[in-house]
Amino acid sequence: MAEHHFHLKADWPGGRNSEGYIEAGNLKTKISIPPEMDGPGIGTNPDEMLLGAAATCYIITLAAMIERANLPLKQMALESEGIVDVTNGVFTYKKIIHRPTVALTDNASEKDYTLLRKLVQKAEKSCMISRAIQGNVELELEENII
């Protein structure tokens, strides 16, 4: 069994509307509360980072599955949306919607497309971040297979 350890350092100099800084490997950025939540909106924030973690995990997992299946990939892109609910002053990350667009080359067969459709769904269930937030954040796919 292998374990991988990831580390993050954070500096936060003051109160709620301060701006801080995080550093974790290649991620080095300012952080603050987003303007949607009445913060200064400097750098990134936990909402964007959770969405980014889920989205990058999904697209990397899908890319690996497509490669292992030897599908003739032409292009792949992803747009993702995070929805945060605020009820009675309580912020809850409610839902993440992934909207992948995947195109195979012109010589792809119907069998290739059938497998691709399965992999688009399977990648969401296989992604480590999706599994980590499962049961807490609703995950939805709106795929566009070209």
Global outline = elongated
Q: What gap, in angstroms, lies between the N and C termini?
A: 39 Å
Which parts are unreliable, with pLDDT below 50 for 5 consecutive residues or more?
none
**Structural class, from helix and strand content?**
alpha/beta
Proportion of β residues? 25-35%
Mean pLDDT: 95
Largest sheet: 4 strands, mixed
Order of helices and strands: EEEHEEHHEE
How many individual β-strands? 7
Count of discrete alpha- or pi-helical segments spanning 4 or more residues: 3
**Helical coverage, percent range:** 25-40%
Query: Radius of gyration over alpha carbons?
Result: 18 Å
Q: What report would you give on this structure?
A:
It is a single chain. This protein is of the alpha/beta class and 146 residues long. The protein is built from 3 helices and 7 strands. It has helices at residues 46-68, 110-126, 128-133, and strands at 9-11, 20-24, 27-31, 73-87, 90-104, 138-141, 144-145. Strands 4, 5, 6 and 7 form a 4-stranded mixed β-sheet that branches. α1 (46-68) runs antiparallel to α2 (110-126). It is elongated, with a radius of gyration of 18 Å. The model has no long low-confidence stretch (mean pLDDT 95).
